[in-house]
Automatic annotation (TrEMBL):
NCBIfam families linked to this entry: antibiot_sagB
Molecular function GO labels: oxidoreductase activity
Segments forming domain ThcOx helix turn helix: 2-106
Annotated source species: Syntrophomonas wolfei
Name of this protein: Dehydrogenase
Ranges in a coiled coil: none
Pfam short name (any one): HTH_57
Length: 474
């Protein structure tokens, strides 16, 4: 590798010395070095201040500690590499072309032998974005991340959209030293961002039946919202705590035109309801509606039993509750209850057609519009998704107030929201079954149309689920 590959400590590694011990801490791993020799200390200083080649670092250790110090140096270097403390800098004369920082526990750099005559292409999962003041390269399949420090690195990536050999790249960029280019390609291979293609022009990713069925965005979402494929914090980190106030549990009123809804007698329901196992066994999607439309009283009972706020819980920081929470009939991540329900009403006895928002605290509908062509658009979309010949009596459009969840959770906010939608769907299904209604969940729907109709900011609140409902045909 020689002087073209410089090893350094990753920039976010925290190092402190106390009582003769050196403590190293990355975002995910730590190490305590005891009885640090002069040579090792020199090597660590160099790794912190710009780095050095492996040969240079080992010579430092040798000079200070003698031959015995070399084993100690290599032992520690191995510890640093395994913990993901080391960044690999590909040099181009005095400039850095790119920096690769493997995750802790990733396969060692340079494990995959690069072949001069073979053709390589970027994996379709590799992508580039700005992070702070850097352009970085990431992939849900990657073992680490790459910072593109020189424009030539980005230019090489452009060529790698098509399969090519290192030689073909060099003919385009003759000023790029051969060794630097080779190291850059080896680094991308090790990172899992580049793939070799065979003589037929097929890469393993393309031939693999499992990988073929992963779409880019699904795999990225999966990798980034679970542990193990990245080094970002995961869970309730409250990272906006000092800067942004959490949203209240209940939205501000959306309309002055309000309709009080029927409240069923829950005590009576406890006695008269179908038994739980019957409801569970009978639950199914029903897409056939009775001639008699669903009534506003049924709608009131349905929403009360599935989605009302049973209790508002004030924020109580000393007790660890940093935001206002609530209790509802369905479970919700962090008791944040970010989901809101909008109703597009086609036909409902006692309720004019139009668009409504459900206020789960007052148990009231807020009228947002009459039955416009856009309201019909929402109903039509659901009708098509469920394969209906007519419009459903009522469609529910479930939105998320994203920042209710994102204020608390890091890496998992959107996945928590999707799970919450699932929990609400099942509750809507069970309540509809207990009420002899016809329920069907819908898999996808328009997010921006509802924003326009209800005056929502897409990034603050937009649709994440749909559900259709009516009286079932017996
Ligand atoms: C997340 C989710 C999305 C769904 N999307 C649709 C849909 O777009 N159209 C539809 O007709 N049914 C949809 N369904 C209903 C399923 O087709 C149905 O639950 C499944 O076929 C099992 O049948 P069952 O509900 O009668 O037990 C969806 C269900 C779920 C849970």
């Amino acid at each position: 590798m020689g002087d073209n590959l410089i090893l350094s400590f990753r920039p976010d590694l925290k190092i402190k010395e106390e009582a003769g011990k050196i403590y190293l801490q990355s975002p995910v791993r730590s190490l305590v070095c005891q009885r640090v020799s002069r040579g090792l200390r020199q090597s660590m200083k160099t790794l912190t201040a710009g780095g050095g080649s492996e040969d240079f670092l080992s010579e430092l250790a040798f000079k200070e500690d003698g031959a015995g110090g070399l084993a100690n140096f290599y032992y520690h270097l191995q510890q640093f590499i395994e913990r993901g403390f080391i960044s690999y800098n590909v040099m181009m004369e005095q400039e850095i072309l790119a920096i690769y920082t493997p995750f802790s526990g990733a396969p060692l750099f340079n494990e995959k032998p690069f072949k001069q005559k073979r053709r390589y292409r970027l994996s379709r999962f590799t992508y580039s974005r700005r992070d702070g003041q850097e352009i970085i390269l990431e992939s849900p399949l990657a073992n680490g991340r790459v910072v593109l420090t020189h424009w030539l690195a980005a230019a090489v990536l452009h060529l790698l959209a098509e399969a090519c050999t290192a030689g073909e790249i060099r003919t385009q960029f003759p000023t790029l030293p051969k060794k630097s280019l080779q190291l850059f390609l080896e680094l991308l291979l090790s990172a899992g961002m580049l793939e070799e293609v065979d003589d037929a022009g097929i890469s393993p990713g393309e031939g693999d039946e499992v990988l073929q069925q992963w779409e880019f965005h699904d795999l990225l979402f999966h990798a980034r919202s679970r542990l193990g494929s990245h080094e970002q914090p995961v869970g309730g980190t409250y990272r906006f705590r000092e800067r942004i106030a959490p949203l209240p549990a209940v939205k501000n009123p959306m309309s002055s035109e309000r309709i009080k809804l029927y409240r069923p007698d829950v005590e009576k329901l406890r006695e008269d309801d179908y038994p739980f196992s019957l409801v569970l066994e009978e639950r199914k999607s029903i897409r056939n509606y009775a001639d008699k439309p669903i009534s506003v009283q049924q709608l009131g009972e349905f929403l009360y039993r599935s989605a009302r706020i049973k209790e508002l819980i004030k924020a109580n920081p000393p007790a660890g509750l940093l935001y206002e929470a609530s209790n509802r009939p369905y479970p919700g991540g962090g008791a944040a209850y970010e989901l809101e329900i909008y109703l597009a009403v086609n036909e409902c006895e006692g309720l004019a057609g139009g668009l409504y928002h459900y206020d789960p605290w007052q148990h009231e509908l807020e009228k947002l519009s009459t039955r416009t062509s856009e309201v019909e658009g929402l109903l039509k979309y659901c009708s098509a998704a469920a394969g209906l010949k007519e419009l459903p009596p009522v469609s529910l459009h479930i939105t998320a107030r994203f920042q209710r969840v994102a204020w608390k959770y890091q890496s998992i906010a959107y996945s928590v929201i999707q799970k919450d939608v699932g929990a609400l769907y099942q509750t809507l299904y069970l309540v509809a079954t207990a009420m002899d209604l016809a329920p069907t969940a819908i898999g996808s729907g328009p997010a921006k149309l509802l924003c326009r109709m209800a005056g929502l900011n897409y990034l603050e609140e937009s649709a994440v689920g749909e559900f259709i409902l009516g009286n079932k045909r017996i």
